[in-house]
Design a protein that fits this description.
Order of helices and strands: EEEHHEHEEHHEEHEEE
Structural class: alpha+beta
Largest sheet: 5 strands, antiparallel
Strand order of the largest sheet: 7-4-3-10-11
Helix content: 25-40%
Distance between the termini: 70 Å
Number of strands: 11
Radius of gyration: 19 Å
Low-confidence stretches: 1-9, 196-201
Shape: globular
């Protein structure tokens, strides 16, 4: 229901949530620079209007459920060590998205496995199933026309990008309407990486 310019959702309406990993500040800045270059070359606004996150899972749920599924996510993160992510060159999802490849998907696949318990919870509350990212990536630009996608993929196949960063926390984002901007509503810290180097006595 609309009132003025605001959109008021009924109490049982779903909000959209996404659990994401964010590149470290230095890498974040470099990816944003790449997105700006894409915008300057192709004039595609999604390149600069979207932030460089790695989406782990997306789901729909009611606001009243937030406290419960946030507790579940924090428990999972309490069991998960920080991990290293390497972004290595470009690829595409035909016919609409150019992205940076995540070299090692293992930690994201493990998180998806652990998040099944959250999926079961939201399903028990008559919400749609969680959607897990089969191929972790950082989007450069999406919602492209097929013509722009084809031209950009040919160009980006010859470009290189290689950066590494450590994921120490996951972020839960939320929006109430598909036209809204996603906002961070919670941050879940991961356990420190265990050192593989031991002092000798």
């Amino acid at each position: 229901m609309e009132k003025g310019n605001a959109i008021y959702l009924p109490e049982n309406a779903f909000c959209e949530y996404a659990l994401v990993a964010c590149p470290a500040p230095g890498v974040y800045g470099k990816v944003m620079a790449e997105k700006q270059l894409f915008f300057e070359e192709y004039k595609e606004k999604t390149a600069v209007s979207t932030k460089p996150y790695i989406v782990i899972a997306g789901f729909l749920a009611r606001e009243a459920m937030e406290e419960t599924f946030s507790r579940w996510i924090q428990r999972i993160c309490n069991m998960q060590e920080s991990f290293t992510v390497t972004l290595n060159n470009y690829s595409g999802f035909q016919p609409h998205t150019i992205y940076l490849r995540v070299q090692n998907a293992g930690p994201f696949q493990q998180l998806a496995k652990e998040l099944k318990v959250v999926d079961e919870y939201i399903g028990s509350c008559s919400c749609p199933p969680m959607k897990f990212t089969a191929r972790p990536h950082v989007s450069i630009a999406k919602q492209l026309s097929e013509a722009v996608y084809g031209k950009a993929l040919t160009q980006y196949a010859h470009k290189t990008f290689h950066e590494t960063f450590v994921v120490n926390e996951l972020m839960l984002q939320k929006r109430k309407h598909c036209l809204d901007t996603c906002k961070s509503i919670n941050v879940f810290g991961l356990q420190p990486q265990r050192s593989t180097v031991y002092n000798s006595f």
